Amino acid sequence: MMEVSVPLEDDHRVTFPPKLWWELDFTKMGNPFSVPCDPCIDKISNWIDKKVGYIHNLEENLKALVTTMEELKAKRDDLSRRVTREEEDRRQQRLAEIKVWLKRVETIEKKVNDLLSARDDELQRLCLCGFCSKSLRSSYRYGKDVFLTLKEVEELRSIVFQKVTDQAESAVIEEIQPQQIIVGQDAMLKKAWKHLKEDRVGTMGFFFFFI
Q1: What pTM, to 2 d.p., does this model score?
Q2: Where, if anywhere, are coiled coils annotated (predicted)?
């Protein structure tokens, strides 16, 4: 990449190295001249802003996390009552996606509680109006966790369920054939066998009553 040279008045020139372009306006010659920024500098600047924001916006993100989590819990309670009512009154069964959502809310609630339990200690580490910390690594990690958790809570809160239950599956009833019982079966067989052993008996008939 070539160097950028900008002419000024009195035949003076300002030369910029290839990796240090900045957005500059020169009006001394009467005509504005603009030098574009190097895209790498923009990326680095945005990256720094994002990382510093985890610490600088920590207190604001914590307040938003508390508020958003309260709204999510209220939505969870309302949805649970609705599901329970439809299950009991209409003999319905809750949808699988409702079970997954409720499980995610339970998991994120535990994570939020853990983050809030360390809130006071982390806020005390901040200094210079929240732009710095006495423990940069700890504050950065905590601030990032708070930010990402807040986004997840907002996502769960924004989900709308038009339907929460479905028709319950009918229980399969197997028909069992009743066992036929012959009254006095054992005694009758013994008596028949006794008669068959007699020489004068050639034919014998049986009459059964089934109950």
Answers
A1: 0.59
A2: 55-89
